[in-house]
């Protein structure tokens, strides 16, 4: 599975805010994660609407992770951000796929997506930041699928 660029930015914003003691501005966060300010601003608005971050306005304002945000799981956040009804493009402006009525692929993909999110329900966003990595992280605005795709050190993971 692959998450979209917007979800990727939202997760990175949450990971930057999780260990932060005070307020951070959207511009500071954008610089820290190496993502354009306008993308971070849109992510902050959505995260605020979901109740995961608190925004303080004014000259000394900024944002911080909310208590709800500290308890949020990666799976629940990705579900909230996923606006696609189907993973496959069965309906297009040119018309529906001719196989749409007898196709089992759509349901199989929905079950696979839910299994992906369910696996991430045990991962709390506030527990993700690692103090070893500081500074801007080179990103391609996509989910890293293997250690070879990663530009930062990732310890090997064990299979369950």
TrEMBL record:
Keyword DNA-binding: yes
Cross-referenced InterPro entries: Tscrpt_reg_Rrf2 (IPR000944), WH-like_DNA-bd_sf (IPR036388), WH_DNA-bd_sf (IPR036390)
Cofactor(s) annotated in UniProt: [2Fe-2S] cluster
Alphabetized Pfam families for the sequence: Rrf2
Keywords: DNA-binding
Organism domain of life: Bacteria
Protein name per the record: RrF2 family transcriptional regulator
């Amino acid at each position: 599975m692959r998450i979209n660029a917007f979800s990727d930015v939202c997760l990175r914003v949450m990971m930057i805010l999780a260990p932060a003691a005070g307020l951070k501005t959207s511009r500071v966060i954008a610089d820290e994660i190496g993502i354009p300010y306008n993308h971070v601003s849109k992510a902050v608005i959505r995260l605020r609407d979901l109740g995961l971050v608190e925004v303080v306005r004014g000259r000394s304002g900024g944002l911080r992770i909310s208590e709800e945000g500290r308890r949020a799981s990666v799976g629940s956040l990705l579900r909230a951000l996923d606006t696609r009804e189907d993973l496959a493009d069965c309906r297009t402006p040119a018309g529906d796929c001719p196989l749409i009525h007898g196709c089992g692929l759509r349901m199989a993909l929905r079950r696979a997506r839910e299994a992906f999110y369910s696996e991430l329900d045990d991962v709390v966003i506030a527990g993700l930041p690692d103090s070893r990595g500081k500074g801007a992280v080179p990103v391609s605005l996509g989910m890293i699928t293997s250690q070879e795709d990663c530009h930062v050190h990732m310890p090997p993971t064990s299979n369950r």
